[in-house]
Input
Amino acid sequence: MPVTEKSILSRLYIVAACLVVFAGAVLFKLVSIQVIDGEKYMALAETRTTKMFTIAPNRGNLYSDDGSLLATSVSKYNIHFDAVTVSEKDFQENVKPLSDALAKLFNKESSYYQQILRKARQNQNRYALIARNLDYSEYMAVKSFPLFNKGPFKGGIVIDQNTKREHPLGKIAERSVGYERVDENGYRTRVGMEGAFSDYLSGIEGKRSKVKIAKNQWKPIGYDNIVEPKDGYDVYSTIDINIQDIAHHALLKQLEKYKADHGTVIVMETKTGEVKAISNLGRTSEGKYYERLNYAIGESHEPGSTFKLVNLVAALEDKVIDTSTVVDTEKGRWKIYNHYVRDSKNGGYGEISVAEAFEVSSNTAFAKIIHNNYKEDPEKYVNRLMSMDIHKELGLPVKGEGKPVLRYPGDKGWSGLSLAQMAYGYEVAMTPLQTLAFYNAIANDGELIKPRLIKEVKEWNKTVKKFDKEVLNPSICSMETAKKVQQLLKDVVEKKHGTGHGLYSPNFSMAGKTGTCQKNYVSKDPDKLKYISSFAGYFPADDPKYSCIVVIHEPDKSVGYYGADVSGPVFKSIAQKIYATSPLIDEVDVKEVLETRLEDAYQGYYANIQKEYKEVPNVRGMSGMDAISILENLGLEVEVKGNGKVKNQSISKGTDLKKVKKIVLELS
Output
């Protein structure tokens, strides 16, 4: 078909019309974007190029009772360089002086930094890393360097601040100090005091705007934050770092000696409930020990013979026995139904008083006492234990407190053997801290106090909240019963037949109870049978200042497993060193003080420990460990030759401490 001029014009008109319609559509869309949806697209562009970031505040510091740092937040700074914002003139004039200053501060060559800066300039890098993890003084120095002192826009300096949590004491009390962690989903894990008091320590987050630059990186806009972060409050704990150090090393030494699986030590101030030390050490596959889990608070287990104190108090309160009541130990074996209760001593103890049964820790005697006196009314027995709050948690702010187990007649697991088993610490469960709280109550004449880890929360020098003594039960037993069992706890250590007599020292007094409990006893395989060794008590025996419990799980049976042998020495070491390592008063011979009975000298000693000790003491005759502790506590460098007790000291008694830096001890 021939193409005519008319057909060509028609096609041109159609094309022109389409172009007009397309142009109209484009124009309409532009107007729509600008006017109708303008705010929407501007907001979208804003979110893709600028973004609001949260600024984590500095967590408050966690202190010991004397103001020593247990945990603190340390600010760290990363310095980057924006090579785009700097003018060519400023860059060329300052690149060499800036590189020289950086090289001097960080002990590198000036050429190293010149290469970084020039390469960033060439590649138009807006976020070139200059230095990372600087402390505050280094950060302030870098800010003052040539070019960088012109600020973020003219000088190109970009600052990223972050905080790190540090523990100045290292691994000591690490689990009790704890931590707070946040995963990628925002889930928080809170452990120990850091977790329990996070609401005080955390502070309030700030806000800062950042702009998106190359390679999906975000650069802060300017120096100032949109919302300034508010730092957390400082928390002052009850932990005494001197006692904590003593407890940690005493426990570690014994765990290593007995190749035990794990163990815990708690030292508590008797009158206030303040926890002065809490150490939890677990064994790795390589045989090393570290703060693995908070066994003291979280691990509920059968207490064994330390629970005999609870049963003794219950029976005395119900007046079903007295300390003079005679019990036949049945030659060390007593059959109840098809089960035998056995004493650790072959042949038993014959007919003995209740007092002596407690002192020698006779299982048969206590099984007979509880079973025979409560078998017709077992509810009466359990109700008596409940009246002493044995079944309750302590209600600690630290998460993960283990639940005590105390069955009631009719509950699942209760049987005809239950009374006899409970009599010597089986079929019940308590955490070490719950057991210690009971022993501490006996030391306090029956007043049960809630253990306390925190003294106060402060903002600078202003107290925000104070944590005072909290009484859980004003009287778990009568004063008469408390005084009777206090004497028996003292006799466990002081009397020759007592299970704790191996710990006796004429230099200071202790009161307590040994405990040896079997684990996996239902297994018929003797290799699977394990032990829990414990010692709970307080010191001095009269007018106690501290209560303490030591629990060691699964010691090597070939080395030893009885509570008196495994846990008792840790208790004694702690009691001795708490006394011996504190500063002594002027013109007092160390040996003479140690040879003075603790219950006679304790109050005068503690009234004078704050006085400055000005002269070198006489440490001859003391054990090397005790002498080292005392002398190092006085600020002296100590060199030791040999093992055993101190035979000679290079600096004589009475020498002015200001003139002495080092002392050499010769041990025999």
About this structure: The chain has a mean pLDDT of 84.
